[in-house]
Design brief:
alpha+beta, elongated, 255 residues, 20% strand, six-stranded mixed beta sheet, 2 domains, three-stranded antiparallel beta sheet
Length: 255
């Protein structure tokens, strides 16, 4: 938000000197109530409590002040380590971070990865697009409740507990199809993006299973799923596909 400083108009000769005082008080009050500064209000409260308690117990206002300052420093350090300045909706999920850590280990094998890429004209996102010697892959990372079992019915229906995951499979397949179309048009030749769903949490009672044209597997098998295929792309092709994907699939969380 930009700051705009405007000059206050001159006070009319017959106006009382306190004309603007209520406005100033209201501004300070609204500032103190602003949710953005809740952590500062909490920090001040912690400092006061720590200072008063230490001062009473140790019978010294100097030691009380010292403890208040220590409390402020401790709270500041704690928030710096545990609270991200990035809004929650812009941060990768725990499942995405786990997959990203696995995919990073593929770099030495000639694989390139784009994370959190948007499908233009939609709210959809490809969590990880991987391009490497064995092909092109769209990996969606899911963290599911481990207390609910995962099962498949007739190789066409995926359930997490009582919940049918058909919409999630259809979404993953659609995202990969969109990426296939966009990258193929950018390159002027046909390429195929293979869709997948990497699940973390509950045990998966199979290794890799294709359900509704989407490969479904435990998140721990991401690298194996990608590398255990036949090599089909050269280094030059990998680079060309990666650059095309980078152009047509913008970052989901761009500034």
């Amino acid at each position: 938000m930009s700051d705009h400083t405007s000059e206050r108009p001159p006070t009319p000769p017959d106006a009382p000197a306190s004309t603007y005082a209520p406005v100033e008080r209201a501004s300070v009050q609204s500032l103190l109530q602003d949710p953005k500064y809740r952590h500062l209000r909490l920090r001040a409260l912690i400092a006061v409590i720590a200072g008063v308690v230490a001062g009473i117990l140790l019978a010294s206002w100097r030691l009380g002040l010292t403890f208040a300052i220590i409390a402020v420093i401790a709270d500041t350090v704690y928030r710096a380590r545990t609270v991200s300045s990035i809004p929650a909706w812009r941060r990768a999920s725990a499942a995405e971070r786990r997959t990203e850590a696995q995919l990073k280990k593929l770099e030495r094998g000639g694989y390139k990865t784009l994370h959190a890429r948007a499908i233009p004209g939609s709210d959809a996102q490809i969590d990880h697009l991987v391009v490497g010697p064995t092909g092109v892959y769209a990996v969606d990372s899911e963290k599911w409740d481990k207390r609910l079992p995962v099962r498949v019915q007739s190789h066409r229906k995926l359930f997490h507990g009582p919940f049918n995951q058909k919409p999630r499979l259809d979404e993953a397949r659609w995202e990969a199809a969109q990426a296939t179309d966009l990258i193929s048009k950018a390159l002027g030749r046909e390429i195929t993006v293979v869709p997948s769903l990497a699940i973390y949490g509950p045990p998966i009672p199979w290794r890799i299973l294709n359900i509704r044209e989407v490969d479904v597997f435990s998140g721990s098998l991401v690298r194996r799923w990608i590398t255990k295929r036949e090599r089909s792309l050269t280094t030059a092709e990998i680079e060309a596909i990666y650059r095309a994907a980078e152009r047509v699939l913008p970052p989901r969380y761009s500034e």
